[in-house]
Amino acid sequence: MITPIKRINRFFLLATGPLIGLLIAMFVSGSALSWQEEKVPFAPASDIPRVTGEIGKKLDEAESAARLTSSSLKKTAELYRKTTSTMSSIVNTAQTSAKRPEQIYNRRITLKLGTPFQTIQSDKIRIELYKVNPGTYKGYAMKVKLKSPDAMKMTLGKDILGGAETTLKAAQRHGAVAGINAGGFADSQGKRYPLSTTVVEGKYVTGFEPSYKDLFFVGLNRSGKLIGGKFRNKADLDRLQPSFGASFVPVLLNNGVKTTIPSKWLTSPLRAPRTIIGNYKDDQLIILVIDGRDENGSSGATLTELQNKLLNMGVQDAYNLDGGGSSSLVVNGEVINHPSDGQLRPVPTHFLFFK
Q1: Can you tell me the distance from the alpha carbon of 222 to that of 339, in angstroms, rounded to the nearest whole number?
Q2: N or C terminus: which one in the chain shows less Cβ crowding within 10 Å?
Q3: What's the pLDDT tens digit per position in 281-336?
Q4: d(CA 269, CA 23)
Q5: Domain ranges of the chain
Q6: What is the DSSP string of 188-237?
Q7: Can you tell me the distance from the alpha carbon of 170 to that of 245, in angstroms, rounded to the nearest whole number?
Q8: pTM score
Q9: Is the peptide bond before 269 cis (omega within 30 degrees of 0)?
Q10: CA dihedral defined by 337, 341, 346, 349, rounded to 10 degrees?
């Protein structure tokens, strides 16, 4: 019978047997085991205070440098803030100064028109409406500042050649905030065609027709500036890059100087409703729509009267558009003037304005 002590002895013998066998095999083969103690250097106890002091000194220097850097960053940030504020102030002052001549000029021309009874303002356009009543005729003036070239365009009646519609209908269809009648027209076989050279969306509707007799072309170029005059060849007009425009008679002002009004247009008719478009030196547009032909003493205006008024207003260029029953002024979906036909006349071209 194996006692517990013998069991323990047998366990250790079995557990250590492989190790003893390995040692015997290495001894027989001549291998030797060597033990080498690795020495770990330690700083002498006397150096500890010195090392600790150096470390503390470095930490103090780092802390001081951090404080200096933080202070410098704060000063730099404050200087940047002050510089930015100063530059913003300089820019604002420069912008205000740059606008001052324009504001002075606008105030000067506005004083001659009076107080607007309606104003329309957006990022694209500014429209001011005034009443015109010098005593011999009545009407309206519309001063327009185009802030974007696409704030004004010309449309064909019903958007087709030979079509005609009222300015109110055209404004409603295209979503325009305001509109006036544009060029002259000729009727043929039940259709109403624009007179002479007509440009829509940069394209000649019926080709270029050299100016003859008293006809002129007036419209806007791609930059939104008023262009007009007589053009003997297409290249001359192309150089102005017309975006749109229509034709009629006659020119009233050219570069701030009165033109000679043909005798035919001085008397036929003498007085009539009129629609005129012009511009100022700062490229603002001015539009006059004059009422007439009623039985209450207001029978319209002569071209000479309007020519003189426009010159006195400081207008640079002015062009007489189709008048009589065609004269139309529509703003915010309402007919502002009093058409001589008792209602708006359908016409083939319209100048429209957009917010």
Answers
A1: 32
A2: N
A3: 999 999 999 999 754 545 899 999 999 999 999 999 999 999 999 999 999 999 99
A4: 138
A5: 122-353
A6: ETTEEEE-S--EETTEESS------TT-EEEEEETTS-EEEE--SSHHHH
A7: 16
A8: 0.74
A9: yes
A10: -50
